[in-house]
C-alpha cells in the first residue's frame, strides 16, 4: 500500500516545513518532493498542517470503578481516539490481589486485539505485591513491552492504594528493570477525614468533592512521591497534575536533575473548581478535582516554559444516570470524565490561538509520551517511523457537542466548547481511520505497542 501526502506543512516537535510524505507498508519511508505517484493513493494537504498522531498516555477504557464500568469499551474509546487524531492510547489495566501482571495485561490485550481501532499500550496499575511475587514479574513485563507501572496513593477504601513501603519497593524494582513508576498523588486519610465531616454536616453537593480534596491534599502526596523517588534515585511520572504547589515541587526536583516527568490534562487547563458549583457539577467529578485559578495559571505557565512534559486525558467517562447516583451524595459519583477525542483538537486550538506553538503541542501530545514511555516507532513525522499522521485544518471551526463525538457516553463536560481548527484526517500506520467527521476505521486494526525499557 503506497500513500503520498503532498503539499502540506509538516509539524514536528522542533520544526515546521513544507514537504511531501511517502508511506509504504505503514511506515514513513521518505520525506521530500516529486515522488512517483504510480499506484499511490495521493492526498493533497495544501494549506493544511501534517502532524504526528497524538499519543494519549492516560485512558481508562472498560474500567471497573465506582460501582460500575467506565462507559467506553476499547472499541468506542479507540474509535473516539481516532476521530480526535489520537493514534495510540495507553490504557491502565488493574492488577488485583492474587493476580499477576502478565495475566492482567493479557486479559486486556485480548479485548484490544478484537476491538482497538488505534494502536494501544499498557501501563499496569499495581495494587498488591502478592507477597513479593509481583516484583519478580517486573522484568517479564518489561520484556513483554510493558515498561511502566502505576501506583495509586489514594483510593484506600477501594483497595487500590499502595502504602509508602510498597511504593518504594516498586520505585526500586522499576528502576532496576528499566521501567518507570506512574503516580496518582492525593492524600487518602485527609480526604476521608473531610468526607466524614462534610457528610455529617449534610454537605453533599459536588462542591464538597472539591473541598474534600483541595490543593493541599494533592500537594502533600505529590511531594511525598517526589521525596521517595529522589531518595532512591528512581524515575517518576506524575499523572494528571492539577495543583500549583505540587507542580512547583515537581519542577524544582526536575531542575535539580531528578528523572521526573509531569503530565497534566485538558480539563485542568480549561475548567476551575467553580464547575462544582454548577447544577451539573457532578458531571465534572474526577480525581484529582479541578482546582482554583492560581493552579490553572501555574499549569499554563509550565506548559509555556517547557516544565510540563505531557498532556493526556485520563479519559474515564460514565453515563449521566451513573453520575446521578451522587445527586444527593458526592461520594457516590463515579470519578472520571471524557476527553480522548478532545485532547489534540483542544491543544491544537490553543496553538491556533497563539497560546503555545504547534511544535510544542506536538511535543506534549506525541513526541514526549513516545520518548518517555519507549515507543520507538512513534511520536514524530520522520523516516522510519510508523505512518501515524493527522491532517489538520487551521481554518475549520468546530463546536464540541455530544452529537458529534464518537464515544458511547451520553454527555460531555466539553459540550459547547468552540475550537479554532480541527483534524480532518487521521491515519494509523498508513490506514485512514477518520475522514472529515466520519470514523472510517475498523475494530481490530489497532496493534499492541511493544515498548522499550529505559537504558
Ligand atoms: O477520576 C478519575 N481520574 N478517574 C479515573 C481513575 C484515576 O484516578 O485516574
Ligand atoms: Zn488517577
Ligand atoms: Zn487515571
TrEMBL record:
Carbamylation allows a single lysine to coordinate two divalent metal cations. Belongs to the metallo-dependent hydrolases superfamily. Hydantoinase/dihydropyrimidinase family. Its EC number is 3.5.2.-. It comes from the Bacteria. CDD domains: D-HYD (cd01314). Gene3D superfamilies: Metal-dependent hydrolases (3.20.20.140), Urease, subunit C, domain 1 (2.30.40.10). This is D-hydantoinase. InterPro entries: Amidohydro-rel, Hydantoinase/dihydroPyrase, Metal-dep_hydrolase_composite, Metal_Hydrolase, Metallo-dep_Hydrolases_sf. Keywords: Hydrolase, Metal-binding.
Amino acid at each position: 500500500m503506497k500513500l503520498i501526502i503532498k503539499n502540506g506543512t509538516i509539524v514536528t516537535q522542533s520544526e515546521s516545513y513544507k514537504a511531501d510524505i511517502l508511506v509504504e507498508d505503514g511506515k514513513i519511508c521518505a520525506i521530500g518532493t516529486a515522488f512517483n505517484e504510480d499506484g499511490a493513493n495521493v492526498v493533497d494537504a495544501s494549506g493544511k498542517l501534517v502532524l504526528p498522531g497524538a499519543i494519549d498516555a492516560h485512558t481508562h477504557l472498560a474500567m471497573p470503578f465506582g460501582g460500575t464500568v467506565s462507559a467506553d469499551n476499547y472499541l468506542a474509546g479507540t474509535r473516539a481516539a481516532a476521530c480526535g487524531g489520537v493514534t495510540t492510547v495507553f490504557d491502565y489495566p488493574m492488577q488485583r490481589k492474587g493476580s499477576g501482571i502478565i495475566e492482567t495485561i493479557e486479559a486486556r490485550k485480548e479485548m484490544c486485539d478484537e476491538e482497538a481501532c488505534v494502536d494501544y499500550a499498557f501501563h499496569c496499575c499495581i495494587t498488591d505485591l502478592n507477597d513479593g511475587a509481583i516484583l519478580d514479574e517486573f522484568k517479564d513485563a518489561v520484556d513483554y513491552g510493558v515498561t511502566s507501572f502505576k501506583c495509586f496513593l489514594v483510593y484506600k477504601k477501594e483497595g487500590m492504594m499502595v502504602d509508602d513501603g510498597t511504593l518504594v519497593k516498586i520505585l526500586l524494582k522499576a528502576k532496576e528493570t528499566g521501567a518507570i513508576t506512574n503516580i496518582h498523588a492525593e492524600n487518602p486519610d485527609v480526604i476521608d477525614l473531610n468526607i466524614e465531616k462534610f457528610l455529617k454536616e449534610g454537605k453533599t453537593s459536588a462542591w464538597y468533592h472539591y473541598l474534600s480534596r483541595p490543593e493541599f491534599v494533592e500537594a502533600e502526596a505529590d511531594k511525598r512521591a517526589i521525596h521517595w523517588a529522589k531518595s532512591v534515585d528512581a524515575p517518576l511520572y506524575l499523572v494528571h497534575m492539577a495543583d500549583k504547589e505540587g507542580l512547583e515541587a515537581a519542577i524544582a526536583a526536575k531542575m535539580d536533575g531528578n528523572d521526573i516527568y509531569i503530565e497534566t490534562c485538558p480539563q485542568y487547563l480549561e475548567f476551575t473548581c467553580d464547575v462544582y458549583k454548577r447544577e451539573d457539577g457532578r458531571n465534572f467529578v474526577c480525581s484529582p478535582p479541578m482546582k482554583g485559578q492560581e493552579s490553572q495559571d501555574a499549569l499554563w505557565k509550565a506548559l509555556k516554559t517547557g516544565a510540563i512534559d505531557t498532556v493526556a486525558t485520563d479519559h474515564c467517562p460514565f453515563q449521566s444516570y451513573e453520575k446521578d447516583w451522587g445527586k444527593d451524595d458526592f461520594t457516590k459519583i463515579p470519578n472520571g470524565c471524557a476527553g480522548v477525542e478532545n485532547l489534540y483538537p483542544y491543544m491544537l486550538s490553543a496553538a491556533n490561538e497563539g497560546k503555545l506553538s504547534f511544535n510544542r503541542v506536538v511535543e506534549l501530545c506525541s513526541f514526549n509520551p513516545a520518548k518517555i514511555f519507549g515507543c520507538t516507532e512513534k511520536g514524530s513525522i520522520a523516516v522510519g517511523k510508523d505512518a501515524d499522521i493527522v491532517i489538520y485544518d487551521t481554518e475549520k471551526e468546530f463546536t464540541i457537542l455530544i452529537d458529534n463525538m464518537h464515544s458511547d457516553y451520553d454527555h460531555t463536560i466539553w459540550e459547547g466548547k468552540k475550537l479554532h481548527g480541527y483534524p480532518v484526517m487521521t491515519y494509523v500506520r498508513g490506514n485512514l481511520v477518520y475522514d472529515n467527521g466520519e470514523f472510517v476505521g475498523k475494530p481490530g486494526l489497532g496493534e499492541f505497542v511493544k515498548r522499550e525499557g529505559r537504558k
